[in-house]
Design brief:
Helix content is about 35%, strand content about 25%. With about 450 residues, it is an alpha/beta fold. The chain starts with a strand and ends in an 8-residue tail after the last helix.
């Protein structure tokens, strides 16, 4: 029997999980939580506390286990994205950045000007993603943008994922000013073609370099031979394996500051022929204004529904009584409703010389078979399944999951941990998800 330990260092909570690998599946052996200790100058303090709680709750030999680490501490990985057109290269680059677990702080389209550079200095991205042009297509704008970024000397590594015909010129532009540039495949090599995976892999490499700058993180990096995975990247990887194992899936992750939505689906045949823009099979969106604690008042203000007696004076980061839980439950419902409608595509009427036709813009979720709720708000507060049930509306103005989609609550908060382990054990994680589904108990989770 093999013991595996996962460490997740979040912005507020640090989580430790132990799993035992037996019979080709991972069996949960224990869990520990502690406050993340960035403010104390060493994230290791929180990790040690979480591990101490894990040891107390687990009979597994925790200290001898193989270690995997994911993190969104140190504010996550801030990125800027620069493309040639909004509907093509800029969107493709943004999809790649979000899929890798980054926070996209700035997106520009077309030639970069002095105002864009000024914004970049304010945003201070950890990595810059430069795209533009299909392969052997337009060259002038992407070369102009490369020069603008190089001359700005932003001291952030640049990933070039644009027209491959000018890769050597881009490399020479940055080398001339001693700025780091990394080359990868074009994210939009041809019309209606997305190539996101190579960019995601390279961003993960840069994340590992960046994340060890968080106080105490270098010690944790030394504990694992697998590198540190961005937490959102771990969730998306878990979603991909889950969907490939049991059917198309949507994962809602509601947190204190953001609501992350992950989907893995190609959509329904009925709507595929109406789509005018390519969408990745695996898609992630981050709603930075939808959180149930840090952004709670923003969620409340944008809601058109009355709060039905819910008082924000009982808002709490970790609810400890029913009054506090009712506030979080109400905010979670509003965040889920807003987040899914932003993530999902829609049906639009288009008038042509031959008459009206319908087109699809964005992600079609009508083929989703499973809706998974994860994150503290949906897993630790009663009523998560009921909240997710309200988004099963099928095709309408928005292409939402169908009424027959089944709901699974990640009750023990293991989804991101299994996504992290999947870097090395994809088949075993797939078998674990299959077992979850076999024991599916009508909306109350695994």
């Amino acid at each position: 029997m093999t013991t595996v330990v996962t460490l997740e260092i979040g912005s507020t909570i640090t989580k430790a999980n132990a799993f035992e690998l037996a019979g080709g599946r991972f069996h949960h052996a224990g869990q520990g939580f502690a406050a993340t200790s960035v403010a104390q100058g060493d994230v290791g303090v929180g990790v040690d506390a979480a591990l101490a709680e894990l040891r107390a709750s687990s009979a597994a030999e925790v200290d001898g286990g193989e270690v995997f680490v994911n993190s969104s501490a140190a504010g996550g990985l801030r990125m800027s994205v620069h493309g040639l057109t909004q509907g093509m290269t800029a969107r493709a680059a943004r999809e790649a950045a979000l899929g890798a677990g980054a926070i996209v702080a700035l997106t520009t389209v077309g030639p970069i000007d002095s105002y864009d550079i000024e914004e970049l200095r304010e945003v201070r991205p950890n990595i810059i993603l430069l795209a533009g042009g299909v392969d052997h297509g337009e060259k002038r704008t992407v070369l102009r943008n490369a020069r603008a970024l190089a001359q700005a000397r932003l001291r952030a590594p640049v990933v070039y994922a644009g027209n491959t015909a000018v890769r050597r010129q881009v490399q020479e532009i940055f080398a001339a000013v001693d700025e780091k540039v990394m080359l990868t495949d074009n994210v939009f090599p041809d019309v209606d073609v997305l190539r996101i995976e190579p960019v995601r892999e390279l961003i993960h490499e840069v994340f590992n370099e960046h994340i060890v700058q968080a106080p105490g993180m270098s010690r944790l990096a030394a504990l694992s031979r697998h590198g540190i995975l961005p937490t959102p990247g771990a969730v998306l990887l878990a979603t991909e394996i889950f969907a490939n194992t049991v059917g198309d899936a949507l994962v809602m992750d509601v947190g204190g500051a953001t609501t992350d939505v992950h989907s893995v689906t190609d959509g329904s045949p009925e709507w595929v022929s109406h789509s005018i823009d390519p969408e990745p099979r695996a898609k992630r969106t981050v709603e930075g204004d939808l959180g149930v604690y840090v952004n709670a008042h923003n969620v409340a203000d944008m809601s058109a529904d009355p709060q039905a007696g819910v008082s924000m004076e009982f808002l709490a980061a970790m609810p400890s009584n029913e009054r506090e839980a009712s506030v979080t439950r109400w905010l979670t419902a509003r965040a889920v409703e807003a987040g899914i409608r932003r993530h999902a595509g829609g049906v639009v009427d288009l008038f042509t010389p031959t008459g009206k036709t319908q087109i699809v813009r964005g992600k079609d979720l009508t083929a989703v078979r499973w809706i998974v709720g994860t994150g503290g708000a949906l897993t630790k507060i009663d009523g998560g399944a009921g909240i997710l049930a309200r988004i099963r509306l099928g095709a309408g103005t928005r292409l939402l999951p169908p009424p027959e989609a089944r709901i699974l609550i990640d009750r023990h908060y293991r989804f991101s941990a299994l996504g992290t382990i999947a870097q090395s054990y994809p088949d075993e994680v797939a078998a674990t998800f299959a077992e979850w589904v076999e024991s599916y108990d009508d909306a109350e989770g695994a």
